[in-house]
Amino acid sequence: MKQILDAILAGDSAAVGGIDVPDHYRGITVHADEADMFEGLDAKEKDPRKSLHLDDVPTPELGPGEALVAVMASAINYNTVWTSIFEPVSTFSFLKRYGKLSPLTARHDLPYHVVGSDLAGVVLRTGPGVNAWKPGDEVVAHCLSVELESPDGHNDTMMDSEQRIWGFETNFGGLAEIALVKSNQLMPKPAHLTWEEAASPGLVNSTAYRQLVSSNGANMKQGDVVLIWGASGGLGSYATQFALNGGAIPVCVVSSPEKAEICRAMGAELIIDRSAEGYKFWKDPSTQDPKEWKRLGARIRELTGGDDPDIVFEHPGRETFGASVFVARKGGTIVTCASTSGYMHEYDNRYLWMNLKRIVGSHFANYREAWEANRLIAKGMVHPTVSRVYSLEDTAQAAYDVHHNLHQGKVGVLTLSPAEGLGVRDPELRARHQQAIDRFRNR
Q1: How many angstroms separate the CA atoms of 57 and 204, rounded?
Q2: Average pLDDT for residues 5-18, to the nearest whole number?
Q3: What is the mean pLDDT of residues 158-169?
Q4: With bands split at pLDDT 50, 70 and 90, how would you rate the model's confidence at 69?
Q5: C-alpha distance from residue 194 to each of 73, 137, 201, 216, 342 (Å)
């Protein structure tokens, strides 16, 4: 690994093709024999620092259509939190199911799971049938893993019957020194960004793009009022940027003055601090409060000059979903990609069917959507939202911070990169956007 890293740091990435790939590497793992360690605890009491390990693991065999990547940096996503607390199920059930698909996928069914669904790094080796990428290419990876042997995925790869999220439903993820990916996960690394900045947008940027911009999601248009929950967070910070870039009107819901200030720094003007305004959508664990839905709706109309949201960008889930369905305009769209506060959503269906609203499920993105989202990053039209960067050794603490919402934007992790600030290949483009790139830093 030292030879590979030295070549990359010297700016001679092409040389890595002539260096032997090590037969082992360090990666962040969970262990199958610990999958019951948090049984009986509430989700917030489950501590990723107890379940995430830094292990030395064997380098997987490289198969057709695949690539091994030297990972310079990665990032924390909520799926790593779910993996670490074994919710809603242990990811080892995913690996076991995937392992039954073919002799090649059997590699993934192991008693440990190398996690992580983001990376920026350098291609080390490519398998048979890979022509678009070669050793030495500087890349980022999106997290969609598909087999494409079924006709279902050939209109939209997210519909593939064997669609999985890499590093969550597959093994050999990005929170490691080496990762195994399919070649059709790779995209060019934005040249003006550091390794940690380039690694951080992948999952959330692509997810927000499909959810909000794509015709597979809300198909946002100019002038749309978009209510964005968690507008300064990992997903919401990209949704806010897409709304502003696309001529829409974001209404940013945040939970503190500091988060409100971040939204203003991105250019948003309409902001609701839900903590300061005291919204409580549930009277008790089983009873929602429609009066609070109405109060939120009135506040949105006050900010927008009388307009209800054309689109509600949903991901908190149970806590907010009833309010989201209520406040959307007649004929509006509630588009949801997650349920970080709970999966069992409840809402008053009268406000959906009688007002012709739509609920659209959205999950990550297909390759084309991920490529377009990455292209916007590379052109400096959308910017990374890294607030803090951890070492590989401190990944468990990073996951804990995300689990408890102690972060802003995205949390990066240095894997092979020895320091922040490395990997910039286009300093001129960077200089033009430096302020926007740094606006989440140290928040």
Answers
A1: 28
A2: 93
A3: 97
A4: very high
A5: 9, 15, 12, 31, 35
Residue that is written with structure tokens 């919710």 in the block: 87
Distance CA 73, CA 175 (A): 8
Distance separating alpha carbons of residues 296 and 302, to the nearest angstrom:
10
**Is the N-terminal amide bond of 88 cis, ω within 30° of 0?**
yes
Give the C-alpha separation, 154 to 147, whole Å. 11
Nearest residue to 120 via CA among 50, 69, 77: 69
Stated pTM of the model = 0.95
End-to-end Cα distance, the chain: 33
pLDDT digit string, tens, across residues 313-327:
999 999 999 999 999
Helices (H) and strands (E) in the chain, counts: 14, 20
Identify the bridge partners of residue 228 per DSSP, sorted by sequence position.
252, 313
User: Could you give phi then psi for residue 16, rounded to 5 degrees?
Assistant: -65, -25
Written as six digits, the tokens of 411 are 């949390």
User: Whose CA is closest to 176, among 17, 7, 392?
Assistant: 392
| Residue 36 host element (H or E) | none
DSSP 8-state code for residue 401: H
- Please state the separation of Cα 209 from the chain's center in Å: 11
| CA atoms of 134 and 129, how far apart (whole Å) | 11
Q: Rounding to the nearest 10 degrees, give the CA dihedral for residues 424, 426, 428, 431.
A: -30
Q: Give the pLDDT score at 182.
A: 98
Task: Note whether 391 and 397 are within 8 A (CB).
Answer: no
DSSP string, 198-265: HHSSHHHHHHHIIIIISTTTT---TT-EEEEETTTSTTHHHHHHHHHHTT-EEEEEESSHHHHHHHHH
Closest Cα partner for 190 from 385, 425, 27, 441?
A: 425
Alpha carbon separation from 324 to 26, 194, 350 (Å, rounded)? 43, 37, 13
Phi, psi for 432 (deg, rounded to 5): -70, -25
Kindly indicate the confidence band of residue 406, based on its pLDDT and cuts at 50, 70 and 90. Answer: confident
The CA angle 190-196-201, to the nearest 5 degrees, is 60
Locus of tokens 């008790």: 284
Look up residue 266 and give its two tokens.
Answer: 């991105």
Could you report the per-residue pLDDT of 116-154, keeping only the tens digit for each?
999 999 999 999 999 999 999 999 999 999 999 999 999
